[in-house]
Amino acid sequence: MKGTALVTGADRGLGLAFASQLASQGWRVLAGQYLLEWSELLDLARCHPKQIVLLPLDISSDASVREAARRASKEVKAIDLVIHNAAVSSPFKDQEIGSGLNYKEMIRLYNVNAIGLLRVTEAFRSLTDVGGLKRQCIISSEAGSIERSHRKAWFSYCMSKAALNMGVARLYEELRHEGYTYRLFHPGWMKTYMSGVRNDAAELEPHEVATMALHYFLTSGEADRRLMMSDWQGQVWPW
Amino acid sequence: MATPEKKTIVVIGAEHPLGEQMCAFWLAEGWTVFAAAAGTEGMEGVKPVANTSGVGGEALLSRFHESTFNPLEAASIEAMVLDVESVMDHVDMIVHCALRCEAMEPGECIDSHQVMALYTYNAVAPLRITEALLPLMEGGRRRIGFITDSRGGMYEEVDGRHIGYDMSLAALRMGVKNMSNALGPEGFAIRTVMLDMQRGSDLEMNRRAQLVCQRLTEERDEEGEV
Fold first, then answer.
1. In chain A, what are the domain boundaries?
2. At B21, which CATH number?
3. What was the ipTM of the complex prediction?
4. Is B109 within 8 Å of chain A by CB?
5. Which residues contact A169 (CB under 8 A, 6 or more apart)?
C-alpha cells in the first residue's frame, strides 16, 4: 500500500477522479462522501473494497467533520495525503453589486469553501501529524487571485477563494515547521458539478486534471520550498 | 450632479477613534457628515464629534448627523439609509472604517463561528452597506473608501492566531476589487487605504486621520498605506 489519502468531496467530478486514480495507484483512500445517494462513488468503492473507505463528510458542519475524523481514526492509524477538494459555486454568481447581491449565498459559500479547509485540517490533525508524507493539497481557483481579479460579479465565490488562499498561507506558515508541505492548485475550467449540474460546456475532463494534479501533488519541487498557487499547466498565479 | 459647495459623506464606523477624527476633518473641510456608528448590542453611539473637534459652532453642527446601526442586520442597514436620505439628497462619498479583529488564544482550536463572524462583519457588511447606499450616490461624486489593515500579506511571518481576521481581510479585498471592476466604468472611484492597525502608528490620531482623508480624496486609483 502506497499510503493513506483523505479526499473531500469525492462523490463526483474531480474528487471522484482523485479517489479512483489514487486507489488504482495502490493508495488507501478515505473518500469524503457528501451525497450519500450518488452512485458513482458507491460503484467505485465496490470496485476497490479493500482500498476505498466511504466517509460521510459535510465540510460545512463542525459535527460532521468531527464525526468523520472519529470514524477515520477507527479505520487508519495515519493519513499521509489530504486533498481538500470539496467546494461549491452559486447559482446567483452573475449578480452584480446594485442588483441585490445574495448575502446568504456569500455566507454559505464561505462556510464551505473557506472554513471547510480549517475544519478538516484541525479535525484530522491527530492522523495527519503521524503521517509519513504530511502533504496538504488544496483545490483553489484563479477566481481567488486578487491581483488578477477581472470579474464584476461572482462575489461569493471569489471572496471565498481569496479567503481560502489566505487561510492556506496562515496554515502553511504554522504547519511547515512541523514538517507539513503544501500544494495549492487551480484546476482550470472543468466539466464538473460545481453549480449542481454537470457543466459540459467546460474545457477539461476531471480525470485529465486529476492526473496532472496528482503528479504535482506527489512529486518534489519548488512547492516544497515556498507556497504558491499553480495551475494544471504548471503556471504560477499571483495572490 | 452635486454642487461643489455641498459635499456629503457617510462614515461607517464613526465610533472608532480614526472614524471620529475623520468626521472632524471633513466637517472642518466643509463637508456634511453622516456619522454611522456600527454599533451592536451593548455599544454606545458616537460622541458629538463637532463638539470635540475644537471648531464648534451652530453652522458646523448643522452639517453633522449621526446614528447607530447594526451592520449585520438588513433591516438596521435599511433604517440607517433612510436616516441618511432624510438629511442628504445625495451622497458623494462613503468611507468604511469599521473592522473587527479577534485572535485565538495560544493553543486554542480554530472556532468556525468566530471565523464566520469576522467574515460577515469585515467583508460582507461593507458590501451590503455600500450596495444599500448606492442609489443615493447616483447624483454625487461617486467615491467609496475602505480603510483596511495592512497585515494580510501572504508571505508575512505572522502567527496563525489571527487566521479568521486575515481571511476576512482577504475576502474584503477581493470584494472591493470585484466592486471596483463593476463600478469603475460607471464613474466610481474606489479607494483602499491600508493601516498598520496591529502595530499602531507613531502619528497622532488626528494627523493619521488627515492623511487618510487626503488619500481618499486623491485622484489616482491605487491602494495606499498610511
1. 4-237
2. 3.40.50.720
3. 0.96
4. yes
5. A227, B154, B155, B166
State the nearest Cα–Cα gap between B173 and chain A, in angstroms. Answer: 7
Phi and psi torsions of A56, nearest 5°: -55, 125
Domain A4-237 superfamily per CATH:
NAD(P)-binding Rossmann-like Domain (3.40.50.720)
Asked if A155 and B134 come within 8 Å (Cβ–Cβ), the reply is: no
For residues B119 and B121, give the distance between their C-alpha atoms in angstroms, rounded to a whole number: 5
Per residue in B147-191, pLDDT (tens digit) is 998 876 666 657 778 999 999 999 999 999 999 999 999 999 999
- The pLDDT assigned to B223 comes to 54
CA angle (B53 as vertex; B51, B55 as ends), nearest 5 = 85
B131 touching A (Cβ < 8 Å): yes
Q: Can you tell me the distance from the alpha carbon of A171 to that of B161, in angstroms, rounded to the nearest whole number? A: 10
Q: Is A93 on the interface with B (CB under 8 A)?
A: no
How many Cβ pairs within 8 Å bridge chains A and B? Answer: 125
B117 three-state secondary structure: helix
pLDDT digits (tens, 9 = 90+) for A158-208: 999 999 999 999 999 999 999 999 999 999 999 888 777 888 888 899 999
Q: Determine what percent of chain A is predicted with pLDDT higher than 90.
A: 91
pLDDT range class, residue B139, cuts 50, 70, 90:
confident
Does residue B2 lie within any of the structural domains?
A: no
Residues of chain A found within 8 Å of residue B134, distances taken between Cβ atoms: 97-98
Say what the pTM is. Answer: 0.93
Inter-chain CB proximity A107 and B116 less than 8 Å: yes
Question: In Å, how far is A227's CA from the nearest CA of chain B?
Answer: 8
Domain around B122: 8-225
